């Protein structure tokens, strides 16, 4: 049995790893000639780390995961501490630590683990055709590949999605812009072992530790779509949006490198129930594109891969396995997308009365409520 995997991102390589465990031959096809991940880093929460362990890539997480032992919220303007707590109770409850990691390093090491020479780069999908014997993938360079089934992990702009749904979907703007990148650890900005967030005015500044003494940072600002801003104005833009904010935030802005700082207008896609059509299955962002507000985008792609492998462990009938995959994943991923959307709206001041109420709640938060929310999300995965 042979699977064609469309996309060599986190979801695509994870799917190949999961299917290989079941003795299924996999060919991976990647659109670009050189993978350049979108975004500087990614939160792999404990459910995602468990998936990486299950797929045989846990050592990658050990190497790349930052020492995130504590979590804190601070008032962005006054620098006053709203809440601070240890993440140890979460780790004890779910059985694994969270690992914020460099996205570039993660994708690169996953590709190396699979074998870079075993991936077909520069193969941009044009269309898919289902036949009596399997599926044919046609690429824009005029080539094609045949397999028994297709796993489409080709991202939020998926070309394969219409072959499952029968129509094109539109992405929904989440009404905020995110700037992200990496800087060296600086204790004057935040503790080296803590996820620190500064909040206020419906805006957010987040600092997470990753490996090699670096911080992953991001700034969120509610803004209209399509402003004429880019890397050349990043420091001026952030200084303007965070005028009057506390000294650590100003120090962070001064430390960033505009040439390696990404500016992303955040979108998601309205959840849909159909993830499979015959012998074509959607996985990762092609199936459930979400905002990053609960840190589950990459984790849910890893969960998809694990569940896909589990389904093929039960049967060698392709359509039966794929239908079970769809049944097991569609409600879980819809829930994650909508949870992220709800958190997005509260965090980014969609209704400032609700956002202010959240700020007030944070000042009374012991950590138990936040940890319970994280725990419930994590334990909803396939390896709880």
TrEMBL record:
One of its GO terms (biological process) is purine nucleobase metabolic process. Keywords: FAD, Flavoprotein, Monooxygenase, NAD, Oxidoreductase, Purine metabolism. Its cofactor is FAD. GO terms for molecular function: FAD binding; FAD-dependent urate hydroxylase activity; urate oxidase activity. Pfam families: FAD_binding_3. Its EC number is 1.14.13.113. This is FAD-dependent urate hydroxylase. Belongs to the FAD-dependent urate hydroxylase family. Residues 2-337 form the FAD-binding domain. The keyword Repeat does not apply. InterPro entries: FAD-bd, FAD-dep_Monooxygenase_BioMet, FAD/NAD-bd_sf, HpxO. It catalyses: urate + NADH + O2 + H(+) = 5-hydroxyisourate + NAD(+) + H2O. It is an enzyme of class 1 (oxidoreductase). Gene3D superfamilies: FAD/NAD(P)-binding domain (3.50.50.60). It comes from Marinomonas balearica. Pathway: Purine metabolism; urate degradation.
């Amino acid at each position: 049995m042979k699977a064609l995997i469309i996309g060599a991102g986190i979801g695509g390589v994870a799917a190949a790893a999961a299917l290989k465990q079941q003795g299924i031959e996999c060919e991976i096809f990647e659109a670009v000639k050189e993978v350049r991940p979108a975004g500087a880093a990614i939160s792999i929460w404990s459910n995602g780390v468990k998936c990486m362990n299950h797929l045989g890539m846990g050592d990658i997480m050990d190497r790349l995961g930052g020492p995130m032992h504590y979590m804190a919220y601070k008032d962005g303007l006054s620098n006053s501490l709203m809440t601070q707590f240890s993440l140890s109770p979460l780790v004890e409850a779910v059985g694994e630590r969270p690992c914020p990691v460099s996205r570039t390093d993660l994708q690169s090491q996953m590709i190396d683990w699979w074998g870079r020479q075993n991936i077909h780069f520069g193969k941009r999908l044009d269309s898919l055709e289902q036949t009596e014997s399997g599926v044919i993938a046609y690429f824009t360079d005029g080539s094609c590949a045949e397999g028994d089934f297709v796993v489409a992990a080709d991202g939020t702009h998926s070309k394969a999605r219409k072959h499952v749904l029968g129509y094109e979907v539109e992405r929904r703007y989440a009404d905020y812009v995110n700037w992200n990148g990496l800087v060296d650890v600086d204790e004057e900005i935040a503790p080296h072992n803590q996820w620190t967030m500064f909040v206020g005015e419906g805006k957010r500044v987040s600092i997470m530790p990753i490996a090699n003494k670096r911080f992953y940072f991001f700034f969120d600002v509610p803004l209209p779509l399509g402003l004429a801003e880019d890397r050349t104005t990043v420091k001026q833009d952030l200084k303007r949006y965070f005028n009057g904010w506390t000294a650590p935030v100003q120090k962070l802005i001064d430390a960033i490198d505009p040439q390696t700082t990404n500016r992303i207008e955040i979108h998601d896609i309205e959840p849909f129930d159909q993830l499979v059509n015959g012998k074509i299955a959607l996985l990762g962002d092609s199936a459930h594109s979400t905002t990053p507000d609960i840190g589950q985008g990459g984790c849910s792609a890893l969960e998809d891969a694990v569940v896909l492998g589990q389904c093929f462990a039960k049967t060698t009938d392709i359509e039966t396995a794929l239908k079970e995959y769809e049944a097991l994943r569609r409600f879980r991923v819809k829930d994650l997308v909508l949870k992220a959307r709800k958190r997005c709206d509260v965090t980014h001041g969609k209704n400032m009365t609700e956002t202010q109420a959240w700020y007030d709640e944070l000042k009374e938060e012991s950590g138990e409520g936040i940890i319970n929310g994280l725990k419930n999300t994590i334990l909803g995965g396939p390896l709880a």
